[in-house]
Write a structure and sequence with these properties.
Blueprint lengths: L2 E5 L6 H9 L5 E5 L2 H10 L4 E2 L4 H4 L13
Parallel strand pairs: 1-2, 1-3
Length: about 70
Amino acid sequence: MGLKIAAVSFLNTIPLVEWFVRNESLDVNITKALPSKLSALLESGQADVGLLPVVEVFRNNCSGILSGSCI
């Protein structure tokens, strides 16, 4: 199984999410969920990476931020 990505299905995420979908050579599985559910997907191992809301940083629910990769 490839990279598991958790994201929301909002307009501002479409360019990034669609890039992964269109590149068929990449082995990715994208799970779309509400922003409030994304952190739980990461914690449970159902996702390897996620587009988390910034509030999760203040809740200390993220293990890292990729600089320059925000929406």
